[in-house]
Amino acid sequence: MFCTSCGAQLEEGVKFCTSCGAPVAKKEDSAYVVPVPQSGNSLSVPAAPELTPSNVLTWGIIAAAFACTFFLSFLGIIFGSIALKKADSYIAMHGPVSTQVKVGHILSKVGIIAGIILTILCVLYFLFIIIMVANS
Ligand SMILES: [Zn+2]
Q1: Tens-digit pLDDT profile for residues 47-95
Q2: Ligand 1 centre and the CA of 24: distance in Å?
Q3: How far apart are CA 67 and CA 62, in angstroms?
Q4: Ligand 1 mean position to 15 CA, how many Å?
Q5: Are 115 and 80 in contact (CB under 8 A)?
Q6: Is pLDDT above 80 for 13?
Q7: How far is the CA of 120 from the centre of ligand 1 (A)?
Q8: For the purposes of burial, counting CB atoms within 10 Å of the CB of 34, is it exposed (0-12), middle (13-18) or buried (19 or more)?
Q9: Alpha-carbon span 112 to 120, nearest angstrom
């Protein structure tokens, strides 16, 4: 190694230049230290949150709840399709291991079926009212 001040050749490990007396920088104090990016969280926080049994159940409940709400039953079909897709993908990865997944899977189907039936009834109900108003 060489002195950064005067260029004299120095012995390895000396703290001051034997020629000019300037302090000799250690290697780890200078540009040899490569900054390490703080990327430790990349594994613990994935971009897409992983599907959990309670997610599957929540989607199933939302689907069934909308399906059974008379004027919003068409939303039961939409949410039921989403819930069924999530339940199926969870079962494909992990199998129907927990009760939450099984119930969520059933509720998503209930949401779709009840949503279709109640949407038809809703349309018939409006048609009935329109006919009654038109005939009065
Ligand atoms: Zn020197």
Answers
A1: 556 789 999 999 999 999 999 887 899 999 999 999 999 999 999 988 8
A2: 8
A3: 8
A4: 11
A5: yes
A6: yes
A7: 92
A8: exposed
A9: 12
CA of 8 to the centre of ligand 1 (A): 5
What is the reported pTM? 0.58
- Name residues whose C-beta falls within 8 Å of residue 70's C-beta, 6 or more positions apart in sequence: 118, 122
Say what the pLDDT of residue 4 is. Answer: 85
- Of 29 and 2, the structure prediction assigns the larger pLDDT to 2
Q: What is the dihedral of CA 17, 20, 23, 29, to 10 degrees?
A: -70
Note the pLDDT of residue 3: 86
How far, in Å, from the CA of 10 to the mean position of ligand 1? 8
Q: Calculate how far, in angstroms, residue 106's C-alpha sits from the geometric centre of ligand 1.
A: 81
Residue 7 alpha carbon to ligand 1 centre in Å: 6
